[in-house]
Amino acid sequence: MERVFVTRVIPQIGIDILKRELGGCDVNTSDKPLPKDELKAQVKGRTGIVCLLTDMIDGEILDAAGPQLKVVSNVAVGYNNIDVKAATARNVTVTNTPGVLTDATADLTWALLMASARRLGESERVLRAHAWHGWGILQFLGQEVGGRTLGIIGAGRIGAAVARRASGFDMRVLYTSRSPKPEMDELNATRVDLDTLLKESDFVSLHVPLTPETKHIIGASELQKMKSTAHIINTARGPVLDEAALAAALKAGTIAGAGLDVYEAEPTIHPALFECENAILLPHIGSATHSTRNKMAEMAATNCAAVLHGKAALNPVS
Ligand code: NAP
Ligand code: GLV
Question: Beta-strand (E) ranges in the chain?
Answer without folding.
Answer: 4-6, 26-27, 48-51, 71-74, 93-95, 149-153, 172-176, 190-191, 203-206, 231-234, 257-260, 279-281
